[in-house]
Write a structure and sequence with these properties.
The protein is an alpha/beta fold. It contains 17 helices and 19 strands. Helix 5 packs across helix 6 (290-303) and helix 6 (290-303) crosses helix 11 (421-431). The radius of gyration is 26 Å and the shape is elongated.
């Protein structure tokens, strides 16, 4: 074997932008012409996931043109690139090894995920043949993402006596996902003693965030090199004549705590959603509360202060503290800031509605009207300025319906949609570590929607510490109410939370999308019917068990 250099191209590809993605691939091949091999992520040519774009015949033609361009560009090195490939009537999730205008070998992904956010069996059929090529005396195997999570594909390459494996991935971020990946890779290496070069996608795509963390692991399961979290970049790894791996200068040691990982993923999600969809910036309602405060901080860190517009919309129940804190944060972060009082609009609505509301007491209708006026104002400003309204609700509130349709749910993207309330507080404190941009009392005072006098969230909900634990068990782990109660939670609280989760599915279906960071988000991960009476069965089970225990 001869010494060899491999470039890991951890880059941000845009779904459907075949020409732009190909330009990025070709440019990278040229930039790293001193590398023997340049490896790109899974489905790099189309971006991941292309979803129903894969049904279009015109996409197929563009992919073929892209492959030709890339093969011609790879004159001094080899390009290993992911793309869809149609063979007759069958479509594969494929990898091509391209050099001097030719395809040296092509591999079709063998294990197609069909769970959570993945829907690959809707589009692709699995491959059955190994992917192997030789270069500079090295015998190199190919795998794609899910293949590594199963034993057989790598074991088959071991039987073919490959020297190491290139794994092309589009593995989305979620909390603790990287540790899971490391565990799986170390397990596979311990079984086969095969080194693995793992190249992951890095960027935001609608609800998904691809966090990078590309890495090199040797045949003893040692992590030789690792690329950063949520940063598109390239780096080289050197393989000597004995097969030993050495990290290039682009790799650098870094530490990343859990809160920083979540925060950086949210930044990447917002940046890519806004910029890839052509918005000029963002608009949000800055209420003086913690959710909008954190959302603004994320937006500024993602886009810059000049792209962010915050609007305070006070009403008679809005405290002076909230108004002061919103103004202070806007000033600290240097964003455009306006105040629009909604009282005159509210009175006009109430006046017009008075004949229909006559004889009926005030209730949540009047509270929701405040939120809906604010939502209308935000949408009007966004239309005028070609900006995107960011909604500011968190996962806990969305789970139990503590939000208003066509009000505070108005908007196009929800950065905190999969962030539980307790984590919102942690992230706010994290963002303030080096410089306090969020006024401290926004974090320390009890949360309130300020839609009624002296209103507090805990008037309507269990304490967030308990609520989030119940939601984790019920939403993310599918525990039954009785099992949750057995863990020591108050039975009335559990039944109330479960009921609220179930009856508010219709709201969530109409809400903005937001980045997935937990093991199970609302939308692609958790797909429950809106018309759903299973909750009555659950309530009967709890009630029957309660009667049994009393007897």
């Amino acid at each position: 074997m001869k010494p060899m250099t491999v470039t890991l191209a951890q880059l941000d590809f845009t779904v459907g932008a075949v020409q732009r993605n190909t330009d990025l691939i070709v440019t990278t091949i040229g930039k790293y012409s001193d590398s023997d091999i340049v490896v790109f992520p899974e489905l790099a040519i189309t971006g991941y996931p292309p979803e129903d774009l894969l049904f279009r015949e015109d996409l197929e033609a563009l992919v073929e043109q892209a492959l030709t361009r890339i093969a011609e560009a790879a004159q001094l090195n080899i390009a290993v690139v992911g793309h869809p490939q149609r063979v007759g009537n069958e479509l594969y999730n494929s990898v091509s090894v391209l050099h001097r205008g030719k395809c040296l070998t092509r591999y079709h992904k063998q294990r197609l995920p069909q769970y959570g956010v993945f829907d690959e069996q809707r589009y692709f059929i699995p491959g059955h043949e190994n992917g192997i090529f030789e270069w500079q005396g090295h015998r190199i195997g190919l795998l794609v993402c899910e293949d590594l999570w199963h034993r057989e594909p790598l074991h088959r390459l071991q039987a073919e006596r490959v020297d190491f494996v290139l794994s092309l991935n589009a593995s989305p971020y979620e909390i603790d996902k990287h540790q899971q990946r490391l565990h799986i890779l170390q397990q596979r290496v311990s079984e086969t003693q095969l080194p693995i070069i793992y190249v992951n996608n890095c960027g935001g795509q609608d609800e998904l965030v691809f966090d990078g963390h590309s890495l090199v692991m040797d045949g003893q399961g040692q992590l030789i090199a690792e690329l950063p979290h949520c940063q598109p970049l390239c780096a080289q790894v050197h393989v000597d004549a004995t097969g030993k791996f050495t990290a290039g200068a682009e790799f650098s040691a870094y530490s990343l705590d859990a809160l920083e990982a979540v925060y950086q993923a949210l930044i990447l999600a917002v940046r890519d959603y806004v910029t890839k969809n052509g918005f000029q910036g963002i608009t949000l309602g800055l209420s003086g509360g913690i959710d909008s405060a954190l959302t603004l901080a994320i937006a500024v860190d993602a886009l810059g202060a000049d792209k962010c517009h915050a609007i305070m919309m006070p009403f008679r129940y809005t405290s002076q503290m909230s108004q002061d804190d919103a103004r202070e944060q806007a000033a600290r972060m240097g964003v455009s800031y306006d105040v629009v009082a909604i009282e005159p609009m509210y009175e006009a609505f109430i006046g017009q509605l008075a004949p229909m509301f006559a004889g009926k007491p005030a209730d949540t209708t009047e509270e929701n009207l405040q939120a809906r006026i604010r939502g209308t104002l935000l949408m009007a400003v966004s239309n005028k300025n070609r900006s995107l309204v960011l909604t500011t609700g968190n996962k806990s509130e969305l789970a139990v319906g503590y939000c208003t349709l066509y009000g505070d749910m108005n908007g196009g993207f929800a950065p905190l949609k999969d962030v539980p309330k307790t984590l919102v507080f942690e992230l706010a404190r994290y963002r303030n570590r080096e410089h306090e941009v969020i006024p401290n009392r926004v974090i320390t005072r009890p949360p309130s929607a300020e839609l009624a006098p002296d209103q507090k969230d805990q008037d309507s909900l269990p304490p967030y510490e308990d609520l989030d634990k119940i939601l984790t068990l019920y939403v993310e782990q599918d525990w039954s109410p009785t099992a949750i109660i057995d863990c020591g939670f108050n039975a009335a609280d559990v039944l109330r939370v479960v009921r609220l989760v179930d009856i508010n599915e219709y709201k969530r279906r109409q809400g903005a999308i937001g980045p997935k960071i937990t093991s199970r988000n609302f939308s692609k991960d958790r797909r429950y019917p809106i018309t759903n009476h299973f909750r009555y069965e659950l309530e009967r089970q709890v009630q029957a068990r309660g009667s049994y225990e009393k007897n």
